[in-house]
Design goal:
Length: 157
Amino acid sequence: MKLSEIKTILPTLENVEFQLEDGTFVPEHFHVTEVGTVIKHFIDCGGTIRKEKTVSFQLWNANDFEHRLKPSKLLNIIKLSEDKLGLEDGEIEVEYQNTTIGKYNLEFNGQNFVLTNTTTACLAQDACGIPEEKQKIKLSELSSDSSSCCTPNSGCC
């Protein structure tokens, strides 16, 4: 989800709720402790230099169980970040600590914001040395063209 999308969605909501892909909810007393830009400048295993730029939200749970972040407050935090940091429209990544700090993509299911799992991948698979995965086929699905192979009791073997 891009920053422009969350800015469009927030005014339509009464509450801001985040949930994980498994259906569990981030406790409703969460705080958004950071909004900013993350720039990752790196070299992949194939030697290609890359740069990624994302918008980062950090969610944090405190012991103030009466705290509730309203959509207008989150929208104000985003606008302040745009004004003070020059925050640009970009894909949002969310940091949230469950058993460890996780990095998630963000989606909206029509009611709640959903933290979707991210994965790692090799960006230079052609240079990485990992063999290409072979196509798996079942022998029973091979066509039986009798002119190109022997059949039982045909006398060809």
